[in-house]
Write the structure tokens for this entry.
Amino acid sequence: MSWSIRWKVAIGTLVAVACGLLIAGWMTVRSLEQQSLTQFSETLEAKAKLVEYAFQSLVQSSTLPVTPSRLQDTTRDLGSRSSARITLIASDGTVRADSAVRDTDLPALDNHTSRPEVTQAFATGQGQDVRPSHTTGERTMYHARLLKVPHDTAPWVVRVALPLAHVDRASDEFKHQLFLALGIAFLLAVMLSFWLAHSITKPLSEIASVAQALSSGNPAIRIKTTAQDEVGLLASTLNQMADQLHTKIEELSEDRAQLLAVLTSMVEGVMVLDARSHVLQINPALERMFGIARVEARGRPCAELFRHQQLNTLVSTILDTRIPREDEILLPLSGRHLHIEATPAGGERENEACIVLVFHDVTDLRRLEKIRKDFVANVSHELRTPLTSIKGYVEALLDGGKDDPAVAGRFLDIILKQSDRLNLIIEDLLELSKIESGQISLKEEPLDLRTLVDRTLSTITPIANRKGHRLVTTLDPSLPLIAGDDDRLVQILTNLLDNAIKYTLAGGTITISATAAPSANRDEPSPNAIDLIVADTGIGIPERDRPRIFERFYRVDKARSRDLGGTGLGLAIVKHLVEGHGGQVWVEANHPQGSRFVVRLPIKGGKRFPAQWNQDNTV
Ligand code: ADP
């Protein structure tokens, strides 16, 4: 059992006070009894001397031995005068007279030689003793003195006895009063000690409860005290400590919040490992990169968490060498490229930052690099093909072909065709580069889709006619005007229709339609976008090639595209122009046959189409 300070102080004080009071009481009683006995003994001695003197006068004044009856009468007389019991004892110990005994009973009294006071008196002249009387049974003080008797050879002893009853009564009375006083004093001490214990422990209890509140995360709580003593000093010191702690915690919290804000807002993934390569911290960017949650990552070994050999090797190299390193890894599942900067942080112990790894997602960079390389390779290849052809035919002409007008004419025709193709590629490339570099600024004017389709069809229809295609136009009459650049939208339509004509066998059907784009729930049309669709019944595009056909120079069938006069840049131009209008373009299969190109353009405020718009333009 553990006692509170209050009880310890109270009980301790009470035990000390009780001991003090008992000792003081005992000593007082003892000294008082001593004092009473001394006084009593002096009184008794004085009385004994007077009695001795009286007997001395009696025995010396008479010439004849004093008769026993006279002795007894004198003894009784002196006894009543001195209010004491007087006994005369002869040298042989027989009692010759006793004031408290009848004359007839005297012979029955036993020999008094053995009484201590009598023995002392015979030996030294006087003797004293305190004991219960044989005769009265009361506690009695005896004083004996030697008495010279002329008619006896040996001296007698005169003894005076007084009962101690009233001394004992006074002593008992005193003890009673004393214990009452001591009891009251003890009661006062009890109250005082409890008040003292309370007044000492109350501020201590307050300090303890405030300290508890502080430790359980209530930093604003303080001890209220006006005390100037040690407890007051303790309280104010604790308050100062709490202030400092509060300030430090706030500073740390601010630092932590700033650090967290930096870590959270970083695009780069950050991971902190300890000396055992266990994860201490990761930021949201890293969570996204690896598809893991911070809670499950923290405390786990890096190797077990990521299971990436290259990353593990990098971490163990840093742990061994303590030198910063860089590396690039490929995540097999997502296919993302991550450039890692790993720096030793200095921590040596468990849960101390030892390595900081910063992950940069360089996937887009690598993709762009690849596109650039592919593009350079493609451009060289595309340009070299007609150039090689031109060079070959020029050499053939020089080698004698020019001398034969028929051959020369055919060769020059081919050279012209290849020059045109070269020109076309260069024009498309320049166009693309202008769009990409933002040199072409797209207008935003209200446009009527019918006018756009009409303008496009005026140039496309003759080409379609040559292959015997049927051109069908289906435009939703309720569509609003769209905002855009008319020339560029015509260019988009022309490229798509040109491809549709090229990649559809003679006698096919090409449909141009425009409808409101479906909304998110697909039941109602979206009021924000329209779909411009070019569908054909041509050779179609395999599903695997569909995502790539908008890349520059990407062609499903290179030879066929070249034979048909394609540059491989038409759809790339379409994509850039559509995106320049804030739209999207994609291709899907056209059922039952062919391809279906969808251009989704946003409506940026416009009017509705006139109602009569819906026609079938069969060519
Ligand atoms: P090209 O000048 O070769 O036509 P594009 O960029 O216009 O270049 O088209 C890229 C490739 O997409 C074409 O080579 C062709 O393989 C394919 N393609 C485009 N439009 C169609 C279509 N309507 N039907 C089938 N294939 C098409």
